[in-house]
């Protein structure tokens, strides 16, 4: 459903933006209102009515009563916001703000730098909220950490100020709870190269710099191009062996699909709700843009950022991958099923060791492969288990065995490859 709905929104955006472009209005604020109104209409179509959320414009209010720069739109919950007297603008507490949108008719470097500065302010409001020691469920951050690092965080990982892993976990926890921050440009850079260059230039142009990747926007859309934060909600990249983590990437198609997945992931984490899944097997073709390595230098914590420069030919030549499940041998599947009943693949479990010897399967090798495929992740106690998501099994007509954490995509893949429905456990 995501792909088909995103295509509908893109067609609607193109049609309505063309109508707005024909208007002879010269008054800047009125032009801004026109495009902000169109953006709100597109966003509203993505929000389920049953959640009783509101899309308003105005100001985010921090825990100390400070007001953010004015937002063009914010997705909010609850009833603690208030309308600013004699205006149509609202002030809403940061704890109940789910997403913030900055809308530009034309998006160029100066506009992008200004938007990043505003988004950074709101992100720091969220940071001050967390410093009040509110009770939060960080399981989504733990799962995101497991997908990035390949292991679950230690019990005190968020308090570890000396390691890169501690900084990564704090960043992921912040991202889980902070409002989604989206910059939306109807016109501006016409190609992906221009938008990538503008993003990097804008980072340097922000006064006083940026306070790490966590304060930057989650998504920047300009025409049909987009820059996306790869923070695990839901898009994620694994940390490389040299310690670098791909923080941002770019794409030249389907920006509304990315927007839908961002919003629906945030709402799913907030309300424990299920949302429609994708309806095609193409994996988003995202080109690396910005990597980061956290560290400590002279007692100060920070990030070392590195840009990945790609030209138009390199961007056009990137491969489009197709989603596929993880294949298992029949003997591996027997060990997997036993491990699921016994809490994970444990190299010290005598029952599993006996079964592994009988079926000639190495528990260590099987665990490592499932961790590599991010079906499992290592636990602090030294064994591997699932990363919070249900794991679905299937046997195809040719007798092959498969695993996936996405039942809908697994069923779709089997239908397309075999022309039949799957036999799931």
What's the rounded overall pLDDT mean?
Answer: 86
Structural class: alpha+beta
Query: How many E-type strands?
Result: 16
| Total individual domains | 2
- How far apart lie the N and C ends? 24 Å
Give a brief outline of the structure.
This protein has 425 residues and is an alpha+beta fold. The protein is built from twelve helices and 16 strands.
Structure commentary:
The chain has helices spanning 2-21, 28-44, 109-130, 139-149, 164-177, 192-205, 255-271, 312-316, 330-341, 350-359, 363-372, 407-418, and strands at residues 54-61, 71-76, 82-83, 90-93, 97-107, 180-188, 219-222, 225-229, 245-251, 287-297, 300-307, 326-328, 376-378, 384-386, 392-395, 401-404. It has 425 residues and is an alpha+beta fold. It folds into two domains: 2-316, no CATH class; 326-418. Strand 6, helix 6 (192-205) and strand 7 (219-222) form a beta-alpha-beta unit. 38% of the residues are buried.
Mind sketching the topology for me?
Layout: H1 2-21, H2 28-44, E1 54-61, E2 71-76, E3 82-83, E4 90-93, E5 97-107, H3 109-130, H4 139-149, H5 164-177, E6 180-188, H6 192-205, E7 219-222, E8 225-229, E9 245-251, H7 255-271, E10 287-297, E11 300-307, H8 312-316, E12 326-328, H9 330-341, H10 350-359, H11 363-372, E13 376-378, E14 384-386, E15 392-395, E16 401-404, H12 407-418
Parallel strand pairs: 1-4, 5-6, 6-7
Antiparallel strand pairs: 1-2, 2-5, 3-4, 7-8, 8-9, 9-10, 10-11, 12-16, 13-14, 15-16
Helix pairs in contact: 1-2, 1-7, 3-6, 4-5, 9-10
